[in-house]
Amino acid sequence: MNIKQDIIWRVWLTFGLLSLFALAIMFYAFKIQVIEGSKWKSMADSLVSYKNIEATRGNILDCNGNLLATSIPIYDIRLDLKADGISDAIFNDSISILSSKISNLFKDKSAEEYKNILVNARKHGERYFLFKNKIDYNFVKQLKTFPIFNLGRFKGGFMVEQESMRMMPFKHLAMRTIGYKNEDNTRVGLEGAFDKELSGINGQRLMRKISGGMWMPLNDENEIEPANGKDIVTTLDVNLQDVSEHALMMALEENLADHGCAILMEVSTGEIKAIANLRRKLDGTITEDFNYAIGDNTEPGSTFKLISVMCLLEDGLAKITDSTGTEGGEKKYGEKATMRDSEPGGYGTITLQRAFEKSSNVAISNFVTKAYGKNPKQFTDHIIKLGLNKKLGLQINGEATPLVKTPDDKKIWSGTSLPWLSIGYEVNLSPMQMITIYNAIANKGKMVKPLLVKEIKSFGSESESLKPIVLDEKICSDATLRSLTTLLSGVVEHGTAKILKNPNYTVAGKTGTAQVADKNKGYTDKIYQASFVGFFPAENPKYTCMVVINNPKRTDKNGMLVYYGASVAGPVFKEIADKVYSTNIDMQKKTLDSTFSKAKIPIIKTGSIHDFKTICSSLGFNYVYADADEESDYVNAGINDSSYHLEEVRIHENRVPNVIGMGTKDAVYILENIGIIVRLKGYGKVTQQSLSAGTPFDKSTIVELTLE
Amino acid sequence: MNSNTAIKKITNLTKGDFAIWIVVILLSLFSMAVIYSATGTLAYQKKGGHTEFYLLKQLIFVLVGFLIIYFCHLVDYRYYSRVAQILWVASIPLLLYTLIFGSDVNDAKRWITLPIINTSFQTSDLAKIALIMFLARQLSKKQDEIKEFKRAFLPILISVVVICILIFPANLSTAAVLFMTSIVIMFIGRINVKYILLLILSGIILLAGAIFTVKNLPTNFVSKMGRVATWQSRLENYGGDDKTASYQNEQAKIAIATGGIFGKGPGKSTQRNFLPNPYADFVYATIIEEYGLLGAFTVIFLYLFLLYRTIQIAMKSPRAFGALLAIGLSFSLVIQAFINMAVAVNIFPVTGLPLPLVSMGGTSLWFTCFAFGCILSVSRHIDENEAEQQKTEAERLKPESE
Fold this sequence. Notes:
With 708 residues, chain A is of the alpha+beta class. Helices cover 35% and strands 24% of the residues of chain A.
């Protein structure tokens, strides 16, 4: 065999062996794919998963676009104390500086405490150590600059996890109505009721785990974009809400009351402009933890008399001029039950109108028992026709179920049910239901459902308006309406609510002073519920307002408990109504018109001639300029009968000018323009200046202006 | 200029076996596609998502590699006999230097940096090719007395052992594979089969002894010698059942299993994110994942085809050196390729050997290109020889036809 052939067979043999090896590789690849395939494929899936991309929760806004609730990002800081970049040398070198910097930043623990926390965490080899919970971005930004942390995620083990937190910029304002959603899915108020709209739809992104435990998006096509939550525009007005809560709080404190609520409703739309719910805790602090306005159904007491009278009038069974006796202020129904008037001795024989204005229990129940005594069902049917036995179906949860006793229900209906029902007992209604009835009277008989949310706004698509819902087009005839309005106005004019009488606007309403039954003791304990519900202006109602205050415990100087609706709830009503009046130009117009012609021309502050001319020409005032040949920039306007008498204000370069009578803007402008440093005290117009006019000054002169 | 003439121009420029050129180009294209996809994780972590970074880097390496092939194939292969001798001698101090002063990567001193061009390379890559070339030289020179123990077998064996022992501490698998390849080449070079068998036997005993020692080394010694721990864990992982199978093997199998017959398509690999070295050690798993069994078998076929063509060249080679050089180098490349694939499909434990021409890597790619240059040089010489023979034949025939 020659050399060449000897080599060739060896080569082919080796080639053959290598080919066999190649076949083995192919077989193994095939084996992994086909024979073991399902096992490995199932393992592949666990490395790729859908991760939620949380949708941003929508905002809750008031009617003017102020944020009532919004989501802000907050951050958790986690530390990997075994990160690659933290060698013992680096850790030991930096730990003291790091701890003191952290301590300085948060000011909650000493540097030593922080050092211990970090050293211990490192000792235990913590790789996902929750270091700080729910901090805002500014802290994160600062922390990132600290030693070790500035090495970043992988080397320094500094991990920032973003979450979002619900924040209410107006803190406690309408807290219960705005509500919340807990992690355990407790849903309260608007946050709860509109959770679906606010939440939006979480997106999904297919992510895969890459080495180092990081998740990386797999590809774009599988991604579901999150649909951010919609904004909820409420009917609330933060300013009115603020006033309502403040007035209610003052009333609770002053009357040592347990709890109370106040509702302000726009007549024509049923929009709730303010809804305040407060409770005074045993330690005297005020909290908001229950929506009394919708969830507290109690026996309303005298405010219910409106409904009784409405029934009487509508059913044609009485006129407001009809009279009845008041039985000396006490009337016995059966053996045990005695109906009493608050006025000892009663009111003698009085008309229905007077009975209403004075809130005579004996008289009203007399009218009702006389009219419906033989057929009490007619009375209860009428009440039920008004929808008072059903929930209103508000936009938020938590409405109490009302109760109206009827003769059909033999178990609870008794001989005394009718007279007591007529004066607001034997019936459970929430303040919201009561205000809805009063609002219907104000709204010419049209009963609208209270509205809390009027718009659902979504970015990039048509927003959805929630229109007022009419519950009853006409709850009673116009004649009845007129009579009822007369009665309600009478209560304020010469009845129980005289304290609400004022020269600016008219009020029509009804006081209520109900004795609250204790579950165990009945009516024996003197627990009262003082309320007032009414609308204003009486002749052309714009707003209806109801105030309920429970268990007032204040006693007057004679040691008598103060619990009447007018004196306890009335002031809250007044404060709210005053605020509405002062901010509502429509309501003021009439008053202004009538007094305008008699009014003197207003005082105008010393100031710019141009501003002055603009004001005078637009309002039609006359003015006379004393130095007609030379006009200065600033003038002082004296009043001469019904025109202004202008004098120029001279400004010399090196002398302090006279700025008394000027507004802040002009005074500061003039003084600082010539190099004087200005300090201000108070607000309003300038009444004093610390350096008198004509005094020489230099560059560092300070002039203090007193404003009033 | 139409495309036909362009191709002609290129084929005129490049000489040597056209099929081998095609294999080189196809493998390089495969390499680019797979690397572009497989470096996703690396680029995401280190280069801020600029995935083109590694692609461009590889492209540059490949283009330089092509230049190396081109220039090397222009050199007359007979010069390589001398070059082999010089390289072999130079390898010894270089390997020693590396063992002592080389830069530490994963507890192994494998790399040195060339002073002037400032490129680091694995000295074992150089030593490997030097040894194979030197074997070709030795075997061809000693063909007359090849069956003798002292005059042929012993000196040849020594030249192999010296290199392998110097590579061994830093790179066990390279040393083992090189030793095995050397035995194959010695067998092809007509060394007495008796001695070869003896060598294989002692090799097996040595290897078994080494494995036994590594497995039973006292732990405090292991912790001092980082590499030993790596060997231990690799061996343990390979020996164990599926539950203890190492992470990388599991990930490789997931890649292979999810690839299917046609693959997920270029750039669609998901396992590249979990495989520790999807662009080097486990590049074959990535190939199966993206191009399926079809792509995987194509790559195997390309290597076998390379081997087949080289054998054709060797058979035509008038000189033993040319034949042994071409065969030695191509067998060395293909054996390494198959071992890399065998690791990916879990026939072998993890070795860390790259897939020639396909794995990402700079200087090791250039050494592979140098090997291809040598093979093509042999082939070019044969072509020219044939052409010359035809010419003389033609000239011889000329007067007769007149």
